[in-house]
Amino acid sequence: MDCRLGCGACCIAPSITTPIPGMPDGKPAGVRCVQLSEDNLCMIFGSSLRPAVCSGFSASVDVCGTTNEQALWLITDLERVTC
Q1: What value does the CA radius of gyration of the chain take, rounded to a whole number of Å?
Q2: Which of 9, 31, 37, 53 lies in disulfide reach of 72, CB 3.0 to 4.6 Å?
Q3: pTM, to two decimals
């Protein structure tokens, strides 16, 4: 599965514990990444500044569902049950 352009759920729902440009302490779950543009595109996609956890993320139906809303719900729930 390819990521749905403009979804952004993986840049909002999970916590990220490694530095992100503009967020030196990472980001808490449910907080929008500062590198997520207004149209929900990663502004550092393909850059060496992008955290490894972000580069290693692979979209799948189990995690992303079939809509952006499902992706936000599913990733939020995964974050909740794994913390």
Answers
A1: 12
A2: 9
A3: 0.91
Give backbone dihedrals phi and psi of 62, rounded to 5 degrees, phi first: -60, -35
3-state secondary structure 44-83: CCCCCCCCHHHHCCCCCHHHHCCCHHHHHHHHHHHHHHHC
Q: How far, in Å, CA of 28 to CA of 42, rounded?
A: 17
Separation of alpha carbons 8 and 29, rounded Å: 13
pLDDT in tens, 2-43: 999 999 999 999 999 999 999 999 999 999 999 999 999 999
Residue 2 near residue 9 (C-beta atoms within 8 A): no
